[in-house]
Amino acid sequence: MKSLTRKLAAFVLSISVAAPVAAPIAANADPAQGPETLIQARSGGSDSLACLTEALYFEARGEGRSGQRAVAEVILNRVDSRAFPNSVCGVVHQRGQFSYKKGRRMSNAAAAARARQIAAEALAGAARTLTDGATYFHTTQVRPSWSRRFTRTTQIGSHIFYRNGRRVASN
Question: Would 157 be classed as within a structural domain?
């Protein structure tokens, strides 16, 4: 049964997810080559989809679509920030930043497929409107000391999101 589950998971992950038509096209993308080229060009490499899928699966698979999209936003906000590595895989695999261990298997094929779809949409340029520029998050089960240094932006599901910088006014 485990062998069948692994084969099904591999099959589901191999299915390409089409990029939205309105996605921004990177300068070195070749639209004739399909949506995967667009995703790879925008994110800086063919491994970006796999890295983001892995992060969404292990960090937020129990969340709804909004919760997973919010975690994807944080990762992409980090890629855009000078304070973090400038690639999706660099951010996802940065030491001490995420709670899961690299290389674990995604055992739930449906959850892996959903994470992959959300990752593909995020990499294709989906609007980042859920977290108000957050670059940090944690679950409600913990209260890390670092959370006091950042501005809380929102809570989605069981994740609380933060960005660097303090709020100047409350209105």
Answer: no
What global pTM score does this model have?
A: 0.71
> How many whole angstroms from its chain centre is CA 46?
15
Q: Could you write out the DSSP letters of every residue in 64-90?
A: -HHHHHHHHHHHHHHHHSTTS-SSHHH
Distance of CA 36 to the CA centre of its chain: 17
Total domain count, the chain? 1
Residue 26's nearest CA partner among 125, 129, 118, 119 is: 125
- The DSSP call for residue 96 is T
For residue range 81-106, list pLDDT tens digits in order: 999 999 999 999 898 888 776 667 88
Rounded to an integer, what distance in angstroms lies between the CA atom of residue 159 and that of residue 144?
Answer: 13
- Is residue 37 domain-resident? yes
- Residue 45 has what pLDDT? 59
